[in-house]
Amino acid sequence: MKKILKWLLGRLIAWLAKKISSAPKKEDVFLSLNQLFSKIESGKKGKGLIRQLDPTIDKLIIFSDQHKGGRDDADDFRPAEKNYLSALEYYFENGYRFVSLGDCEELWKYTPEKVMANNGDCFTAEKKFQSNNQYDRVFGNHDLEWKYKLQQNLFLKPVFGKSLKVYEGMVFKVDYQNNRYSIFLAHGHQGDLRSDGNVFNAWVVANIWTPIQRYLQISINTPATSFALTDRHNIIMHEWSATKKNLVFISGHTHKPVFASMDHIDRLNKQLHQAQKIGDNIKITIIQKELDKRKDDYAGKKQTITQTKPSYFNCGCCCFTDGDITGIEIAEGFIRLIKWHETEGNSQRLVLEEAELSEVFEQLQ
Question: Whole-prediction pTM value?
Answer without folding.
Answer: 0.79
